[in-house]
Amino acid sequence: MALALSGGGDSMALLRIAAAWARASGRRLLAITVDHRLNPDSCDWSRRCEAVARASGADWIERRWEGAKPSTGLPAAARRARHALIAEAAREAGAKVLLFAHTADDIAEGDWMRERGTPLGRLREWSPSPAWPEGRGLMLLRPMLEEGREALRAILREAGEDWIEDPGNAAFGRGQARAALNPLPGGEGLRLAERSDASSAERVRGSLRRLAPTPHPFAQERRPAVVRSSPLPLGEGIEIDRSIDAAELAAVLLCASGGEVPPRGDRLERLAERLNAGEDFIATLAGARVEALGETVIVGREAGEMRRRPVAELALHPGVSVVWDGRYEITGREPGWIAAAALGRLNALSKADRSVVAAVPAWARAALPVLIRDGGGAPVLAWRKAEVRTLGPRRLSLAQWASSGETTQESDLAGTIHGETPPPDLF
Known about the structure:
The chain is α+β, with helices and mostly antiparallel strands. It contains 14 helices and 18 strands.
């Protein structure tokens, strides 16, 4: 398993607890530190993280946020870069689960910031990685969400360990929230009730027990979902029930379009209301197309959006995997370029490929990936000359687990999800 290690008090406490649990469980623990290159002391901070991680028995690697930094929206950009870099490192190492050290204080601070208009998502103990496509197939576990920050720091003080205080935290919204929620002169502000450090550590270890090869004895039965993979032959659509709510619909639209930023606001709410009301319609939102006819509602990639905002062609090399349009992971068998089937390429396909495409709804065909071979010749459906995995079904399944509050196990992340690959006899 992998752990995000910033060197702050929260992540240092989690490292101490998780490393002890990993040793007792015979598990490898990988600590990942991101140097954002925003502070002149950041290199020293990384060296401190490395020393503490290795002393605890964990492996350690560093990733750096290179390049120019934005002049506005720096906290959000840094958060996006951090999640992407950590996810890439975890996937390369073979991890399925990432541990993050968010606490009850982070929840309170997030609530404070949302009340003042900051568009932050809510923290859950178990949720998919927010980085896409870097975090595909990865789940985040936040085992310390019931623990207060000071109780966790007490664990470090008792062990004679210190931590890094980043002065940059005070300059942005979270620093303001932290100052507002901590006790102030005159008794203003809020302080979270603290419990003993010993009980905090035990509760965190309890959360880590879901990282087990066999189901937890108290695991809940899987509840029927209101969203599911579509039976369409190439996995390019998702079928949903009309009873879907706005939050679930946002996840479906994201999975269908391959996008990263979930839709919010009035348009999303109105779309969910129209579905709930039983209306027949065709609508587009966030790069996805919703076709609601009778009881059948299919959501897929909006090909017209691809024409307005063309998807870049990607070079494909034998044995190398790329993610195209956020929807397909494609591993090459021969060199070429992956592109959309639009721009007349559908008509140039072979008779065999056109017979496969004919089973796909007309609105979805131009959004299929084709291979343009380096040696020339007509394009072919990517499935002919490459291994193609549809990313939407697994992404949707992970989102459903998180939103339903199910007791999911690490072992649930293995195996094939229906719709990830086409039927074996299709090609």
